[in-house]
Amino acid sequence: MPGLEDLYREIILDHYRSPRNRGELPEPPAHRVEGFNPLCGDEVVLYLLVEDDKVVDIRIAGQGCSISQSSASLMSAAVKDKAVEEVRGLIRTFKSMMSIHEARLGDGDEPDSGEATAEDEPVDLAALGELAALQGVVKFPVRIKCATLSWNTLAQGLDEVEKLAS
Amino acid sequence: MAQVNRAPTGSGPLDVERIKKDFPVLAQSAHGHRLVYLDSASSSQHPQAVLDAMDDYYATSHANVHRGVYALAEEADRRYESARITVGRFIGAPQPEVEVVFVKNATEAINMVAATWGRANLQPGDAVLLTEMEHHSNLVPWLMLADERGLELRWIGLDDGYRLESSDLDRLLDGVKLVACSSMSNVLGTIPPFARLAEAAHAVGALVVADGAQSVPHLATDVHAMGCDFLAFSAHKMLGPTGIGVLWARAELLESMPPYLGGGGMIRDVRRDGFSPNVLPWKFEAGTPPIAEAVGLAAAVRYLEALGMGQVRAHEVSLTAYAQRTLTDRFGDDLQIFGPEGTEDRGGVLSVAYRDVHPHDLSQVLDQQGVCVRAGHHCAKPLMRRLGVTATARASFYVYNDFSDVDALADGLEMAGTLFS
Question: Where are the domains of chain B?
Fold first, then answer.
């Protein structure tokens, strides 16, 4: 049975208490994008500065629970100064870390069906660095949406930036 | 209302130690702790008597109602209609056999009023008066009808003590056709002076809808004393099953309203060119109704009546006072309770903010201690905006809660405080 220590790791509490890259960026040149979690009223506002296919700067505003806020903070530190393609890869890896466990939890005690799916691919936790601290969230299915809120918002923001540039 | 006076044992008006044993779900543990259920404002638990009544119905008496001429169907019919009388008497309905309409839940009851009485009687420009503390179920049906019909919606505000602002009620009521108000807030616990509000509404010719989802389970209810024209409530908040609720309305109002859903059971005759509706209350009960659920609701009503609604209220007043005292003593200014001080005009619902710990995190830490509270906007987003928060953590009490449950709540809050300090 998962305990609170699985959810509230020290890194998570640290990012919750002292969020990184908090604030706003002037727009333009930055792009502003909002995300909401209707379940708990959490909201995240991202300011993205993308230059030459690179996330040059990122700032985070909004409010929410420790999981949504720390996830956003960890994400900001992880994607800053990274190429957009690399960031997209990180979003995919993070979301698969969240969904792989979600899928297994959904199976309950059922043995694996044996069918290979995308979700069965191993997640490269090493590539996630500090973000791997959030993997405990998947043992608390209700909170997965908290952890993925900022990531979905980032993906949406990058899509919008791409559309504006084309 | 029938009240069974029993010698109170223990320290309170109810023998909670004995009552807890009636609720099988409370015997289990959660995360290695005893289950402390503090979310009855959302949905309450079931005594064995309710489960037995429904089991017995399915095991011995199930057939469709209102159709069969065989003994089994007659027995199903008898239990279903007898449940209607039991429930009607519980709320002081003058004519329970025609005025109690079984619906899905309080939400459906209010939607039915909006869709039938509302569409038949409200014209563009007509005003409907609501309050800032309503649940979405008593807001969205009126917002939908306002969009459709071009109605004006007005709002009774809240004062700083979380009570309805009454100073400009006369101005707000001027020209109003309908007042829709909760008889107990699901977030604040506020019990408004319903009878006075209804009297003022009737004085200007308006009708009154009472959202009784929170009050009927916890307060002795008399529709005549309340002065409401419509009363909506749900079984699952009063120890009964999900899937059934009640719309009560005066018979002449129900007579005047067009039917809601069309189908079997709600008609007297159907021709190729039209239909004529059935008599009350079946005119509003299209399709096979929730028969076992009606039987379960009646059993829940009998359970509450055996405890006595006066004792239920006294018990919750005592628990609420203990909770207010305990939380204030232990947490001081770190904890804010969104709701009236005292216990006189509030129910056993405590919405709290604790330091700046997010309600979702509070509820998560409490869950690890086996304490179930609700975190979120409680389907009252306009109220959340009025309070200046996005969410609260809410503990709510019922007959099976005692002082030790309040202590478990306080211990869990302290733990959350330490974790997030």
Answer: 16-46+308-419, 51-305
Whether A66 and B391 lie within 8 Å, measured CB to CB: no
Q: Are A66 and B358 a contacting pair at CB < 8 A? A: yes
Which of B28, B29, B136, B361 is the best substitution to test chain A (most A C-beta atoms within 10 A)?
A: B361
- Whether residue B390 and residue A42 make contact (CB cut-off 8 A), yes or no, is yes
Distance CA A159, CA B226 (A): 56
Q: Which of B31, B136, B351, B360 would best serve as a mutation to test chain A binding (most A beta carbons within 10 A)?
A: B360
**Partner-chain residue, chosen from A17, A40, A140, that has the shortest CB–CB distance to B375:** A40
Q: What is the pLDDT of residues B229-276, one digit of tens each?
A: 999 999 999 999 999 999 999 999 999 999 999 999 999 999 999 999
Instruction: Tell me what the pLDDT averaged over chain B comes to.
Output: 95
Q: Locate the chain B residue with the closest alpha carbon to A65.
A: B358
* SS3 state of residue B270: strand
What pLDDT was estimated at residue B191? 98
pLDDT of A102: 46
Q: What span, in angstroms and rounded, lies between the C-alpha atoms of B70 and B74? A: 6
Which structural domains are found in chain A, ordered by start? 4-165 (3.90.1010.10)
Distance from B363 to chain A by nearest Cα, in Å? 11
Classified by CATH at the fold level, domain B16-46+308-419 comes out as Aspartate Aminotransferase, domain 1 (3.90.1150)
| CB spacing of A40 vs B359 below 8 angstroms | yes
Give the residues across from B372 on adjacent strands: B37
The order of strands in the sheet holding A31-37 is: A31-37, A42-51, A54-63, A82-83
The residue among A12 and B257 whose pLDDT is bigger is B257
- Residues B51-305, CATH architecture: 3-Layer(aba) Sandwich (3.40)
pLDDT, residue B3, reads 42
In the prediction, which pLDDT does B11 show?
53
* Residue A130: C-alpha distances to residues A125, B71, B307, B403 (Å): 9, 70, 56, 43
